[in-house]
């Protein structure tokens, strides 16, 4: 293949050899003979005035030379084509030889494979025949052994049936005797159970009478306890009412004393406030008499301070009054809580 590729002409040559692979084992060559390339016409030489007067002999010589050149070119082309054709034929011959060698090699390999396959097939068939023969012999042996075993089993079964029938008769007799003994035992147990039943019946009646007496005694005790509980509850109710009245009286007295104390404190605070106002008036009067000799600015400062002090005092009084009101509210809530506690205690005592 490499020799053929090296011998192929170049694209500039007028002929072309194309190689195309058609099958896995062969090649197809296509030779295309092209037309000769028309070369560029050389520029005409400037004709001198001497050439105008050419003779016929000169023209014939030139034509002859041109014909010789043409024949020489055609001969060269034919020689190159023949060389190329010889190379192509040589390549095709080599390819044919290669294909023939490949075909012969493959044929030999196939023949060897067929021979080995046939040998293996015959060996496999002989092996199968031997295995089948052994299997048939084993089957025949097993059949004979099974027939013998079946005969032995039949005889054993017949003997067992005979012995089983005899054993069955003996077992029936034994079962009849056991049933008779069982009936006697059942009768004995039945008589003993009837006696026990009578004894249990009498014992149950006695226990029922004892339970009735005991229940009546317990009912009597419960009735006495209920009467005692009712009387006790009435006594508790009375004591709770007395305690409630005493507690409410104590709370009212405490509230009244707290109210009186609060009024006294308010009275004291009001008196102190009055005294403070009087003192402030006195201070104002004294300040007024003194400030006549001082500047008006100092009087204004003192008055502003006095007004601020008075406002501060009023705020303090208001805070004290608010605290007193809060204490009153707190005392009221305490009084209500105590009343609620007393009511809850009374309800729990009555329900108990």
Q: Would you kindly provide a written description of the structure presented here, covering whatever features stand out?
A:
85% of the residues lie in helices and 4% in strands. The chain contains 3 helices and 2 strands; from the N terminus they run αββαα. It has a two-stranded antiparallel ribbon. The longest helix is centred in the middle third of the chain and has 236 residues. The N terminus is likely disordered.
Order of helices and strands: HEEHH
Mean pLDDT: 79
* Rg, alpha carbons: 77 Å
> Which parts are unreliable, with pLDDT below 50 for 5 consecutive residues or more?
1-12
Structural class: mainly alpha
- % residues in beta strands: under 5%
Biggest beta sheet summary: 2 strands, antiparallel
DSSP helix fraction: over 70%
User: What best-fitting shape do the alpha-carbon axes yield?
Assistant: flat
Topology (SSEs and partners):
Blueprint: H1 2-7, E1 15-21, E2 27-33, H2 56-291, H3 296-351
Antiparallel strand pairs: 1-2
In short:
The protein is mainly α. The protein is 85% helix and 4% strand.
Keyphrases for this structure?
352 residues, mainly alpha, flat
